[in-house]
Write a structure and sequence with these properties.
With about 80 residues, the chain is α+β, with helices and mostly antiparallel strands. The chain is built from 2 helices and 2 strands; from the N terminus they run αββα. It has helices spanning about 5-20, 50-55, and strands at about 25-30, 35-40. The two termini are about 20 Å apart.
Length: about 80
Amino acid sequence: MRSAEKADVVARRYRDRFGADRMPVEVMEADLESGRYFRVIVGQFKSEKVAWRTISAREEELPLRAWTVRYQKRFLSEAGP
C-alpha cells in the first residue's frame, strides 16, 4: 500500500487479532521504481513451508493474496533518522 498511515492501521488490526507476542507484526518500507510502498509483515517463521501452513490455517483472517517474503530491509520501527 502507498500510505504509511493505512499500513499502521492494518498492522494494529493484525496485532490485536494475532497477539504481538505470538506472531509479531511490523510495517516494512519498500522503495520500488513505481514509488514507495508499505508492507505489513505478519509473523516470523522457521521456514517457508511453515509460513505457507500458517497462511492456509488463517486464510479467513489474512488477505486473499497473502504471500511469503524473505526480507532484508530493516523495519521502520528500527530505522534511524
